[in-house]
Structure formats: C-alpha cells, structure tokens
Specification:
isomerase, 9 helices, Phosphogly_mut1, phosphoglycerate mutase activity, alpha/beta, Rossmann fold, seven-stranded mixed sheet, about 280 residues
Length: about 280
C-alpha cells in the first residue's frame, strides 16, 4: 500500500517550482502483517481488494515517510485516499508525524489497489507453480493482461463483494479482476476530475493510494510505454516528488525524499519479489 501527495504554489526544500503550478509526491509501504491478517504478508499472498491491516514494517515506514514530508516543509489542505484501511492507517500515522491530524479526508474506491481477481489470496509461489512463473509475471507486471476473473465461488469473493465500504460502487463498475490498464483508467479519471481541480485552485493536497494505483499514475504522468512499465518499480516507504507545469505535466522525472542508497535498496527489495530491475531515480 502507498502514500501520495500533491502540492502547488508553495516553496519547499524539494521543488523549485513556485510559479503557481504544481508538485506531486508518493510513497509505498507494506500490507497485512497485523492482528489476524499477518499471514497475507508472511505467506506472500496476493491481496488486492481484501481489506487487511498495515504491517508493523508498514507502520514504521509510514513514520519515516511522515518525517520526510515534514523535513521537506510540506503542509496540506485536503486528503484523498482509497477505501482500504491499510491506506487509512498509513494516513493516520503520516498526519500525526506532520502535525496535521485535522485535515478533511475524501475517500474513493477509484484509488483502491488493483483487484487481482482469481489470484487473490494465492501465495505467489503457489500461483507460479500452478500457472507457470512466466504467466504469473505477465499478469503481475504487464499493462493490459489481466489475471483470471474472480468467480462467485472464490473464497474471497463474498468477503470483497459484501464489504460495506464498497456498497456505493455500481454493479457495472464493480471489478471481478483488473489489469494495470483498467486500474490506471479509474485512477487517472479520479486524478483528472477530482484532484487536478484542487491543485489548480492552489490547494495543497495529500493523496494516499497503493502500489499499482501509483504505477498507473506514474505511467500516465511520465508517458511510460506499455512495455517499459513492466519493469517499473516504486520503492516502499519513500515519498517521491514531481514538479508540474501549468498543464499538470512533470517538468522533470520524480525525485525521492531519501538518499540514493536508501532508495536503491528499497527498489531492489521490491524488484526481487517479481524478478524485475528497472527503477527511476
């Protein structure tokens, strides 16, 4: 699970843009190692829309992320986040660290993590044994190839479909599986319709989202090809910043709020899960 922020029209220690355009940052962290959900992390399971707790490591990373944002001198007016509690737990910790616990929060399913369909709840190694490692990597990393759909008899189907947090989602919009492409479609729509107007109104906006959600947004903002995005890794627990022009396009590639050694170490850890190596620094 991940944290992102958006800011505009103010000076900080990271961005040089003070002309009234914008700036975007994001950070990833761990999921599902707390209370009864610890097996999701320990057993390396596909999580997606299952509403699990933030791990102990994830909480530590959220503290570090909040401290990095505070050190960068960032302040916010409004928060956007997903409907998943691991995002809310990350947000609570970050806001505590930056001393802004009273910010208004807007929650939307369009910022949810990708729905992994029939892979949900499977151990990644078991999935590779069942379908072949190459096929699983295509499902996990490709842009437009989704995993198998989640059938009604899937053990996690009722858990997800009957989650009261998702009751406002129209039946025709409720996914049974998503690729990066379909995840990106809803994230970019939310970005364009809800977040960008706040940036243009000179609001300082914090966005808390998830790994695939942010991969899709980075692909959109940077114009990364469908092939290149397969090898894109975003580090966990490290905020990154975009300097945006008046058209909400990056002036330069993302900048991390951490030293290079820390960033590369985190990227290597993320890449080792899927066997990929590309990073942006």
């Amino acid at each position: 699970m991940d944290l992102g922020l958006v800011r505009t029209g103010i000076d900080c220690d990271v961005c040089e843009n003070t002309r009234g355009s914008g700036c975007v940052a994001a950070v990833r962290d761990q999921t599902a190692q707390g209370h009864g959900e610890s097996e999701w992390n320990l057993k390396n399971l596909f999580c997606g829309w299952v509403d699990v707790d933030l791990s102990v490591k994830g909480r530590e990373e959220a503290v570090t992320s909040g401290q990095a944002l505070k050190q960068a001198g960032l302040k916010f007016d409004l928060v956007f986040t997903s409907l998943l509690k691991r995002a809310h737990q990350t947000l609570d910790i970050v806001l505590q660290e930056i001393g802004q616990t009273d910010l208004p929060v807007v929650k939307s399913w369009k910022l949810n993590e990708r729905h992994y369909g029939g892979l949900t709840g499977l151990n990644k190694a078991d999935a590779a044994a069942k379908y072949g490692n190459k096929q699983v990597q295509i499902w996990r990393r490709s842009y437009n190839v989704p995993p198998p759909v989640m059938e009604e008899d899937h053990p996690m189907n009722n858990v997800i479909v009957n989650n009261p947090k998702f009751s406002m989602i129209r039946k025709e919009d409720f996914p049974k599986v998503e690729s990066l492409e379909t995840t990106q479609r809803r994230v970019v729509a939310f970005w364009t319709e809800e977040i960008v107007p706040q940036i243009k109104a000179r609001k300082q906006v914090l966005v808390v989202a998830h790994g695939t959600s942010l991969r899709g947004l980075v692909k959109y903002l940077e114009g990364i090809s469908d092939e290149e995005v397969m090898n894109l890794n975003l580090p966990t627990g490290i905020p990154f910043v975009y300097d945006l022009d008046e058209n909400m396009k990056p002036i330069k590639t993302l900048q991390y709020l951490a030293d290079e050694e820390t960033v590369l170490k985190s990227i290597a850890k993320v890449a080792s899960v899927g066997g990929t190596t590309k990073h942006m620094y």
